[in-house]
Amino acid sequence: MALHLTTVHAVLWTILYSFTENVRASPCAEVNSSSMVVPFGSAVTASCYIKEECPLTINQDFFTKWKKNGHFIPSSKGTQKNVYEILIYNFTDVRAVLECFICSHDICNVVGAVEIRTVYPPSIPKNLTCLLNLNEPATLMCTWDPGKKTSDIPTNYTLYTEIRDTSPLQKFAFVPSPEENFYRVPRVGFALLHEVQVYVVARNALGQATSNLLVLDPMKTAKLDPPVIQGVGTQTFGCLEYKWSLSHTQKWIRKTLPIEIKFTPVNNNIFNKEQSIQQFSRRPDNKVKVCGLLHGMSYESQMRVKYQNSSPWSEWSNATVATTPMKAPTGRLVTWLKLLKPEGKKQTAQLFWKPSLQFRANSMNVSYTVSLMGELTKKKETVCVTDQQHCSFQIHAKVRKVCLTAMNEAGKSNPTEVPVYRQRGMDPVPFLKILPQSEESLLAKWKRPDTSTISAYVLEWKSLCGTNPNHVSFEILDRNQTSFVASGLEPYIPYEISVYPKYGGGIGRPYSIVAYTKQKAPSISPKLEIGKITPSFVELFWDEIPLKQRNGIITGYRIFYRDEKNNTGVIDIENTTRHVVLKDLYPFTIYELFLMTSTDGGSVTGSSVTVKTASIDAFEIVLIVIPACVGLTLLFFGVFTCFIKQKWMKKYVWPVIPDPANSNIKKWTTADSLECMPPFKEVKDPVLVYLSHLSLLSLPEKELSKGDENIKNGNWPYKGKSVDTGHDDSSHDSETFDSEQQSESVPYATVVFAGPYRRQPVPPPVYLRSESTQPLLGEEEPSSPRPYEKMTNQDNLSDVDHFSTFHKNLSAGKEKTSLWVDFPMLRSLEINSKS
């Protein structure tokens, strides 16, 4: 019972301890550590003192265990009573919790814990550098990298300088402000002409770290002040001579110093604004002469200096502009002559030119003269004098040469002869493709025509919305070259790229493409204009976007519209269309419209426009209602007629014709057979028609004549009314054959028609049915029944008063035998004579 209570107490103690963090002491034990914060890698000692009143140890055998961050570690018994210690020789955890356990019978309970944190000593300062500043007062600026911050413990830095080659040794210590990694050493901390040792020491509560030792000559690290350009001489062609000095505070320096001079042409109308730098070594009192410059060109010059080659450069001096002596232009010009369609005897010519690599303007201001020379005279006719690089003029058909001359105040250049190609409209290149290379360049690729007379290609490009529409850039390319990169372009600007093949005697037609180096969404979207408005559609128009605001090639338009009930619609339109009709709209409804314009670089949406569709007027209502009413009326009468004249419709649309193969003659009633039988009309080809009382056939002439003889001989007894010659009145025929005595039998007969029926062939034998219930006499061929025919109504039939068979000499027995053999379908009509 006592053991059970002890276990319960232990469990309660464990639960209570689980809700407690960073416990150093408890009612059962007390845990201590040599230090709560220890340096990284140092040794740590922890102890667990078990109290005598601990319920986990009373009257029990127990032992202790230690855990570090949830893992058991070896432990040892302390020197004192009830004290259990643990020693960790190399503590490398950033944070660790040491827990003390009391174990009994393999059940361990935690009774105390302590948390230990690891901190690092300061990092070693790195990249220590010092630069001498000779400005009054002179200072030595030193900077260093403090390294990675390893703990929250404050770190202090101290900068030490030691001046060597002095007696006694001079050592100085400078403490910068907290969190600063630089210090400006005053003049007392170093000597200009002696070496100085510099190092930095970092300290915190856990230790210190020292940087590498820096040994330097302060003057070699000095950054001099920018030099002063006192004047520039221009007495020699292509040369400039500079007189310079150091700053006022550094004029005491008299040694030879490295110098750099930077030149930038001021005028870049012809040449690109490229910079050039030349290096020299001079004493401050010596002049610097620079040659190899362009004649008559103004240059912007700057100078900088340093103490020695390993020293840092000073800043650039102030700019000075000077002009080299002027000379006459030299070299040739690259030309491109285009002839437009002739107008009478003259035609318009456009001449473009640019300097070649050998051309030198030799002055700031250059003008050009364009002259024409005819066939018979060497006198030149000046047509253009300009400072631009293009000219348009009229050229006569007799002109064979155009001369271009550059001139300045010093003289003229040798003329550049431009050949005139009269033959135009020759074959162009078969293929041209433009690809963007960057935001400032386009790559043009083309294919060579299938001819060997190509001498060169002219690649021409011009901005379609630039400030100077006459400015054209071009390049003359070799006949074997089929690609070129046009540079110096601007993004979002359209350029027209054209390739002209040059033949031996003329110029081919151009192949042109409009391209962009880079595209983006248009700056604006066109404004929608409303056209015709009806109840069901709205007509829309819009203008073309100005070329400067397109920012790319328009790929298409898209119109969005929405009604009052938020029903939306979208219509895509091609880029060549600026007109659309919105169809299938609701009348008298307000729609909100807006237009979106797209390029390959993006899309932009214009302002919305509200439009209201028209309402339907009275005239339109009449045009819609009247046809609808007429149609409904005709439909009603048609349906009504079908219900009223149901039998009549059934008679003409789907007549019911009995199938003799699946029925017998007893089932053929007058009402069933005649009700749905349409009136018979005489046709060219007679057809066997089965009525309820008569079977109509046409006899051949031979049989018909035979039948006539029998009638004349009195073989057709007849009583009552005469036989009707017509075959369309079935009710009249039924009266002729009524008999009260034979009400259960179905009278029928075969009637032979004369007239048109005589022309059709029929089977030779004829069977006639009398009023008797006895079967008909058999034929010579009793194997198959003969069809019945209606006899032709002739004058010799007047004496016939009843129906009979043709052969009177046949006995009744034979007649009955013939009935079943020849007429198997008439078995249903059998009546026994005994009855």
TrEMBL record:
Checking Gene3D superfamilies in the record gives: Immunoglobulins (2.60.40.10)
**Any idea which UniProt keywords this protein has?**
Glycoprotein, Immunoglobulin domain, Membrane, Receptor, Repeat, Signal, Transmembrane, Transmembrane helix
List all membrane-crossing ranges.
621-644
Main location per UniProt? membrane
Q: Cite a GO CC annotation.
A: plasma membrane
What Pfam families does the record point to? fn3 (PF00041), Lep_receptor_Ig (PF06328)
Subcellular location(s) per record: Membrane
Keyword hit for Glycoprotein? yes
Extent of the signal sequence: 1-25
Q: What is this protein called?
A: Fibronectin type-III domain-containing protein
> What is the organism field in this record?
Pangasianodon hypophthalmus (Striped catfish)
